[in-house]
Amino acid sequence: xxxxxxxxxxxxxxxxxxxxxxxxxxxxxxxxxxxxxxxxxxxxxxxxxxxxxxxxxxxxxxxxxxxxxxxxxxx
Length: 75
Known about the structure:
globular
């Protein structure tokens, strides 16, 4: 995937269970379907209708959504 320079690759994921926030770098070649909270070890999965954990729990949606390339997404 060739990224637009305006695409943001950093997102802060917030755990819905314990509220822990963690800055993460998003993958550019696939959606991330699972994320382990570093504080409580909760396994996060996307909410229904979202393609990845960054779209569900992050401050910035994944690169595919940002570029409106939905090869991995049905959003």
